[in-house]
Amino acid sequence: MRKKVIKVALLVSGLMAYLFSARAVLADPFTDLLLWGGRQTEVQALTGLSGKDPILIVANLIRVLLGFIGLIALVIIILGGLRWMTAGGDEDKVTAAKKMIGRAIVGIIIILASLAIAQYVLNTLVTITY
């Protein structure tokens, strides 16, 4: 059990280090050279759309959705903790609460992995297309 906890902690810390490391690909100097090729004002005037790059819009949308799902997983962990505290020594309730917390932790790991994959794909798209 202790080895599993250590492995999960290392995996989560590695994912966090990757996700929060500095990225030069989406830095501000590139925003004027993105998809529209320096013709943002023309595209915006003709279509009535925003001058923002669609890849950046999708990246922000993915980050917001995954953040919201992570918040839901955190609430599930808190509810599992509350169930555990109010179990009153009943082993069935404690086991159910432990399972709930464990599943929420697996969900957070999946969320972090999907965020890492999405970040990698979007950075690769920006690198390839620009």
Portion of residues within helices: over 70%
Global outline: elongated
State the secondary-structure class: mainly alpha
The H-and-E topology, N to C, reads as: HHHH
In quaternary terms, these chains amount to single chain
Q: Estimate nothing, just give the exact number of structural domains.
A: 1
Number of DSSP-assigned strands:
0
| SS field, number of helical segments | 4
How would you sum up the major sheet? none
Low-confidence stretches: none
- Per DSSP, what share of the residues sits in E-state strands of 2 or more residues? under 5%
The CA-CA distance between the termini, in Å, is 47 Å
Mean pLDDT: 77
Rg over C-alpha atoms, rounded to the nearest angstrom: 21 Å
How would you describe this structure to a colleague?
The chain is an all-alpha fold and 130 residues long. It has one domain (2-129). It has 4 helices and no strands. Helix 1 (2-19) runs parallel beside helix 4 and helix 3 runs antiparallel to helix 4 (91-129). The longest helix is centred in the C-terminal third of the chain and has 39 residues, at 91-129. The termini are far apart.
In brief, what are we looking at here?
With 130 residues, the protein is an all-alpha fold. The protein is built from four helices and no strands. The protein starts with a helix and ends with a helix.
